[in-house]
Amino acid sequence: MTDSPTSGRPTSEPTPAELAATPAEHAKLAEGALVRADGLVAGYIPGVDILRDCNFFLRDGEIVGIIGPNGAGKSTLLKTLFGLIPVREGSVRLRGDDITSAPAHILVQKGVGYVPQTQNVFPSLTIEENLEMGIYLRPKKFAERYAFVSDLFPLLSERRKVKAGALSGGERQMVAMGRALMMDPKVLLLDEPSAGLSPMFQDEVFIRCKAINAAGVSVIMVEQNARRCLQICDRGYVLDQGRNAYTDTGRRLMNDPKVIELYLGTLAGSGEKK
Ligand SMILES: Nc1ncnc2c1ncn2[C@@H]1O[C@H](COP(=O)(O)OP(=O)(O)OP(=O)(O)O)[C@@H](O)[C@H]1O
User: Are 201 and 36 contacting, i.e. CB atoms less than 8 angstroms apart?
Assistant: First the structure.
């Protein structure tokens, strides 16, 4: 994996500001990406755009984090990639296939998994039944995928007969991630996986995300815990008012004085570890 994208400019290494300033350059960097979104305009209410010319890409094997202030449109971007919000302008592509506004069941079959922030388990079902629900389209694959998921989350097999409603928030998050992994996705979309969890479970979630990625799944993660997210990400996007404000490697975003001043400072109170 390259540590930082190259801009093709004859000058010195691009700064985050330069990358953010040129959508054409971003489009060039996105060539050959596993997932790419170009010029997305989307929203919930007619006439009100939440995403406003938003660009994004994810390369094979990457973990990419999306951070930004409250209401910036981070979750909306994730939902739009997963076809849950109608796209008004722009496109979403998966390995070059146009999947703009494709329905969720088609995206799941194409190898996209999505874990919403809330209500992401069936509380009245056991852990095992939740995992079965994740693969109801391919029930013959259950045993193989269950073994894979249990390897990543041993707790899920140890407590497989426990109802999801009886689990802690962190344990439920593991069930939700495990369920999405049952269909063997190539890319996993995670909406604020550490939200509302104790610091110990937050750490656990980030460690699991790394492990999922190491097992061959590319990951797109929206996070409030911006610093921790950038620590584990190959690249990050800072969204502000539905647009890309900055994009660069996680490490460089974390150390960029403007990003720190404008975003990481104001996000510091969101339960993250310093
Ligand atoms: N179902 C909805 N109907 C109408 N507006 C919505 C809906 N969901 C979100 N919004 C609005 O869209 C904007 C972006 O919300 P979104 O949840 O994408 O932000 P976010 O960056 O993920 O913020 P947060 O970190 O607070 O979750 C906000 O102004 C929000 O009020």
Answer: no
Mutate to test the pocket of ligand 1, among 40, 44, 229, 243 (most ligand atoms within 8 A of CB): 44
266: pLDDT confidence band, cut at 50, 70 and 90? Answer: low
Domain boundaries, the chain: 60-86+102-111+185-264
Please tell me whether residue 154 adopts helix, strand or coil conformation.
helix
Q: Is the ipTM beyond the 0.85 threshold? A: yes
Q: CA-CA distance, 44 to 21, in Å (whole number)?
A: 27
Q: Is 241 in the pocket of ligand 1 (CB under 6 A)?
A: no
- Strand residue runs (E) in 68-186: 87-94, 97-98, 112-115
Q: For 219-257, write each residue's pLDDT tens digit.
A: 999 999 999 999 999 999 999 999 988 888 999 999 888
Inter-residue contact 259 to 20 (CB < 8 Å)? no
Contacts of 191 (CB under 8 A, 6+ apart): 75, 78, 79, 114, 115, 116, 117, 222
45 C-beta closer than 6 A to ligand 1: yes
Domain 60-86+102-111+185-264: top CATH class: alpha beta
Shortest-distance Cα residue to atom 6 of ligand 1: 44
Cβ of 202 less than 6 Å from ligand 1: no
Q: Are 36 and 92 in contact (CB under 8 A)?
A: yes
Indicate if ligand 1 lies below 6 Å from the C-beta of 242.
no
Pocket lining: 71 vs ligand 1, CB cutoff 6 Å: yes
